Amino acid sequence: MHRRGVGAGAIAKKKLAEAKYKERGTVLAEDQLAQMSKQLDMFKTNLEEFASKHKQEIRKNPEFRVQFQDMCATIGVDPLASGKGFWSEMLGVGDFYYELGVQIIEVCLALKHRNGGLITLEELHQQVKRRGKFAQDVSQDDLIRAIKKLKALGTGFGIIPVGGTYLIQSVPAELNMDHTVVLQLAEKNGYVTVSDIKASLKWETERSRQVLEHLLKEGLAWLDLQAPGEAHYWLPALFTDLYSQEITAEEAREALP
Amino acid sequence: MAIPLSQIVFIEEQAAGIGKSAKIVVHLHPAPPNKEPGPFQSSKNSYIKLSFKEHGQIEFYRRLSEEMTQRRWENMPVSQALPTNRGPQPGRIRAVGIVGIERKLEEKRKETDKNISEEDLSKLMVKAKEMVELSKSIANKIKDKQGDITEDETIRFKSYLLSMGIANPVTRETCGSGTQYHMQLAKQLAGILQAPLEERGGIMSLTEVYCLVNRARGMELLSPEDLVNACKMLEALQLPLRLRVFDSGVMVIELQSHKEEEMVASALETVSEKGSLTSEEFAKLVGMSVLLAKERLLLAEKMGHLCRDDSVEGLRFYPNLFMTQS
């Protein structure tokens, strides 16, 4: 009996049909890729034109940089993803932020023994500016963007919002919500006590103590048993006096691996 | 420092060019014998050039041309001496006027510039958005026709995404690994890092590598993602280094020949000798970064060789006597 769809002939026919379909599929993808390649070349030209007019401005004007970055984010483009990207190559934005990344790492390493790996954005800003490696204005927004990129390196860079500014974490210390909230509480005076926590956050004594102990263990807090009343837990990251202190030569040496 | 306007024969503009500022060339009569002493007694040139680094040349030229037309000095008594560095005079108030106009023009120019910049930026972004849309459409086609797109085409697509900074819509990784660029980079890194790794006991954190490589480059720096994506390919390309991720999330580069587990054995010896050690103490003894010292001690703990004493005084490691004394 002549059954359809069965037998060597039918199988061969099916294979032929599949191959043709595959070919069509490949042609479709090839078409679109060719189109993308062409559009990419056109875009590169547009970007070159833009760069010739505005490259300097991006380098010199922090506000324009923010506008640029925000627009990129809105349309789904990351100009800092790769040094090989057009944005980096033609606008030079890459080198600026990646170099900033290096500076940030070095500053954080040098100061780690002072503050346990936690530093305010203000202090970081001052220290980076002080190094003078950038001819142009580095803004706090620039620092935040550079830090966000550094997270990819896996060594625990984090950004913790506290009281209107940010604490930058540069060591892989585990900080959960409880720790973060206590840090925010400490931001006002540079220190916090168990009573402060119980009053503001309505926590039990044990929970408060555990959080503070963790901060001590991680080297982020110092214990002051001689304070009036009860023990004060100070956060060196929040000592505004330390801002004015330069990084010493020894600290800098420690920082370079 | 001043030159009387009567000395001017004529003036002409010179437009700005690449590396050159805009200039006004002022051609002069020969200096009179009773010329005031100045920076030069004489010059072989019969003109001076006024250089305008940023702006102002248009307004200056206009004003000067006006004065050249009016020639008001011809109506003044000849004997009037040239005022030099006197206090506020009628002439001075004029200067303030010019400065005021200059400032207004400057502000207007900045506003216009700002608007042009923003407009140009918006136009550029519209075009960039088209690229994003196109890449999404291609990615969808790829998803639908699983396996019908050649590897070659996949590599091409990924490199286009890399150029634009568009996240790979299929894997959600920005630029993903597996592009030619990252493969080349991986090979370069293997070359660059061999010696530094050997100097540092065979292991470095990715942060150290990032700084080291970028400091050496000086320009055309690597992004953190470039580095990570290249390192992810090290093992696949059978290069003598590899990327390792510890439980804590810390990422390191190791020489293939480096056996962290063996280092743990020697770490145990060191800790036993001293009775107990913190990460900082161990780091100092062995000459490692605190970060990597801690990872080694944690690994030793994980393998059961060490146990911890976690107090407010810090994290201290002891040989695990429970294991050895059974």
From TrEMBL, chain A:
The gene is SNF8. Component of the endosomal sorting complex required for transport II (ESCRT-II). GO terms for biological process: protein transport to vacuole involved in ubiquitin-dependent protein catabolic process via the multivesicular body sorting pathway. Signal peptide: none annotated. Its main location: cytoplasm. This is Vacuolar-sorting protein SNF8. Pfam families: EAP30. One of its GO terms (cellular component) is ESCRT II complex. Keywords: Coiled coil, Cytoplasm, Protein transport, Transport. It is found in: Cytoplasm. Component of the endosomal sorting complex required for transport II (ESCRT-II), which is required for multivesicular body (MVB) formation and sorting of endosomal cargo proteins into MVBs. Belongs to the SNF8 family.
TrEMBL record, chain B:
It is found in: Cytoplasm; Endosome. InterPro entries: GLUE_dom, PH-like_dom_sf, Snf8/Vps36, Vps36, WH-like_DNA-bd_sf, WH_DNA-bd_sf. GO terms for biological process: protein transport to vacuole involved in ubiquitin-dependent protein catabolic process via the multivesicular body sorting pathway. GO terms for cellular component: ESCRT II complex; late endosome membrane. Keywords: Cytoplasm, Endosome, Protein transport, Transport. One of its GO terms (molecular function) is phosphatidylinositol-3-phosphate binding. The keyword Repeat does not apply. It comes from the Eukaryota. Signal peptide: none annotated. Residues 1-80 form the GLUE N-terminal domain. Transmembrane segments: none annotated. Pfam families: EAP30. SUPFAM superfamilies: PH domain-like, Winged helix' DNA-binding domain. Component of the endosomal sorting complex required for transport II (ESCRT-II). Belongs to the VPS36 family. Component of the ESCRT-II complex (endosomal sorting complex required for transport II), which is required for multivesicular body (MVB) formation and sorting of endosomal cargo proteins into MVBs. The MVB pathway mediates delivery of transmembrane proteins into the lumen of the lysosome for degradation. The ESCRT-II complex is probably involved in the recruitment of the ESCRT-III complex. Its ability to bind ubiquitin probably plays a role in endosomal sorting of ubiquitinated cargo proteins by ESCRT complexes. This is Vacuolar protein-sorting-associated protein 36. It comes from Lynx canadensis (Canada lynx). The gene is VPS36.
